[in-house]
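Hi support team,

I've been running sequence recovery on a batch of backbones for a student project. Most finish fine, but this one hangs at about 90% for roughly twenty minutes before it completes. I'm not sure whether the input is malformed or the queue is just slow. I've pasted the structure tokens below so you can try to reproduce it. Let me know if you need the job ID as well.

Thanks,
M.K.
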């Protein structure tokens, strides 16, 4: 098995514009995409890791999920399930999302899986 690489972290916030500006001005991250009806989801990158700033919509603010770039999604999912993960989904809609599937780790954190990676 090859080592997976963390390439994506998603944060929930009530004010996506304000939080995205914090990461741009504090750490020099660049905006690479927006999505949602009012383009309220803002995607930033340092050229290596994608940081998704997503609207909380009543959920607690903070880290929502993270994602690994893997060589083979099905093999990574099977390995995670054998190690104690619970099944998420084998595939996600092709609506602009970068993840292809996900599992939940033993404490319930969503872990996205992608062979294609995220915009950098």
């Amino acid at each position: 098995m090859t080592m997976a690489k963390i390439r994506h972290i998603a944060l929930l916030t009530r004010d996506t514009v304000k939080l995205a500006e914090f990461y741009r001005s504090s750490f020099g991250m660049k905006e690479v995409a927006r999505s949602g009806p009012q383009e309220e989801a803002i995607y930033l990158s340092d050229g290596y890791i994608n940081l998704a700033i997503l609207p909380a919509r009543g959920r607690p603010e903070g880290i929502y999920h993270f994602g690994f770039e893997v060589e083979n999604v099905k093999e990574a999912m099977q390995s995670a399930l054998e190690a104690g993960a619970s099944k998420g989904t084998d595939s996600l809609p092709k609506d602009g999302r970068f993840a292809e599937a996900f599992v939940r780790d033993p404490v319930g954190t969503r872990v996205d899986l992608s062979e294609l990676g995220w915009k950098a």
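--
Follow-up from support: It reproduced on our side and the slowdown came from queue contention, not your input. The helical segments are 16-27, 73-82. No action needed from you.
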